[in-house]
Design goal:
This protein has about 375 residues and is an alpha+beta fold. It contains 14 helices and 6 strands. It folds into 3 domains: about 30 residues, no CATH class; about 190 residues, Lysozyme (Orthogonal Bundle); about 110 residues, no CATH class. The strands form 2 sheets. Strands 3, 4, 5 and 6 form a 4-stranded antiparallel beta sheet that branches. Strands 1-2 form a two-stranded antiparallel ribbon.
Length: about 375
């Protein structure tokens, strides 16, 4: 009987200790679970910051229900198409950098009026302007392959569509003229392909290349085509940037495109050689760097012209205004409007007085 009492007493103590251990272990497991959850929530964004942090607005909202490009409706019910467009947002460095966003908006505000005017004159869809955004971010850059300007035209293509390209003149760097050449190419592409999304692809892949792939794969839609990674990303990036710039608030960007006022311009025709552009700048009472910025097609300070070809030089009516953004886009450096000799390398001097036929034209305008 005494043994039974002892056993019962031990059993009671054992059960009490076991109950205490269960409470402690449960509390431990609870704390461990909380710690694991917190660790997961903080570690994933650290591992994938571009996916979770910078793109939280896109990730949270998803894409709009309907998306269009040049009146073509995108088949967002196709998971591959939808993923390809989302990928351009997720992997783009643009929306991760607030300063880059504002720079791009500022450039669009300066240059879209010129580009839109040309596209409209050729009866082309307005959405095609976003091709230039993707090609150059609206600046006069040069690619490793030698393509230049806002529309990244190769020399042969530029010459085919009427632009002058040589050691002294490169009209690919003239925004209006290069847009005209691009518009002609886009017209030709549409006459062959009859679809604007295919036209956008052709700007990267070539008209004949797209035609060949359509026939080879026996499809008639861009979204059915299996193309190289570069072209596939190019078209969906054009569409993604269209959405970003057209509907910035949807993606958490508190800015709207506000076209700039037009810069009043004068122009002058010259049909003789120029030994030094400094003389022309002095004659026009215009800082030399402004004259070069508004005529970026002139590659040097001189312009031999044995054939007496007529060249038109544009320059601003008001030379003391702030054109720093404009100059940065076309020349790549800044300008102090109070410094008449500003230059990225050195200041030039007048070598001789040019003989030139100077004829003022009607005032023209360009967007600032």
């Amino acid at each position: 009987m005494f043994l039974k009492k002892i056993n019962l007493h031990h059993l009671k103590n054992f059960l009490l200790q076991l109950n205490s251990l269960q409470i402690i272990s449960s509390a431990f497991l609870f704390c461990l679970g909380v710690w694991i959850l917190l660790s997961i929530n903080t570690s994933i964004p650290e591992l994938y910051p571009s996916y979770f942090n910078a793109n939280i607005n896109i990730y949270g909202k998803g894409l709009p229900k309907y998306m269009h490009f040049c009146n073509d409706t995108l088949p967002l019910d196709d998971i591959e198409v939808k993923h390809s467009i989302q990928k351009e947002f997720y992997e783009s460095g643009l929306i991760q950098n607030n300063s880059s966003v504002h720079l791009l908006f500022a450039r669009c505000e300066r240059w879209f009026p010129i580009i839109e005017k040309v596209l409209n004159s050729y009866q082309l869809p307005d959405d095609l302007k976003f091709i230039a955004v993707i090609e150059s971010h609206l600046s006069n850059v040069t690619s490793p392959m030698g393509a230049k300007g806002f529309w990244q035209l190769l020399a042969n293509t530029a010459q085919t569509y009427g632009l002058e390209v040589n050691d002294y003149v490169d009209e690919r760097l003239d925004v209006e003229k290069s847009t005209i050449a691009a518009a002609k190419y886009l017209q030709d592409a549409y006459s062959e392909l009859h679809n604007w999304t295919l036209v956008a692809a052709a700007y990267n892949y070539g008209i004949n290349g797209i035609k060949f792939q359509l026939e080879k794969q026996n499809v008639d839609s861009y979204h059915q085509l299996k193309l190289n990674k570069e072209t596939k990303e190019f078209v969906y990036r054009v569409i993604a940037y269209k959405m970003l710039l057209t509907y910035p608030q949807y993606f958490g960007i508190k800015r709207k495109l506000k076209p700039k006022k037009m810069i009043p311009l004068k122009s002058i025709k010259i049909d003789s050689s120029i030994t030094d552009i400094s003389y022309l700048a002095k004659y026009l009472n215009c800082p030399k760097i402004l004259l070069k910025a508004f005529n970026p097609w002139l590659l040097t300070n001189a312009l031999p012209n044995p054939d007496k070809k007529t060249y038109t030089f544009k320059y601003p009516l008001h030379t003391t205004a702030d054109y720093s953004g404009y100059i940065s886009d076309v020349l790549g450096y800044s300008f102090n409007p109070t410094d008449n000799t500003s230059s990225p390398k050195n200041s030039d001097t007048i070598n001789s007085k040019d003989s030139a036929s100077l004829q003022h034209l009607n005032n023209k305008h360009i967007s600032q």
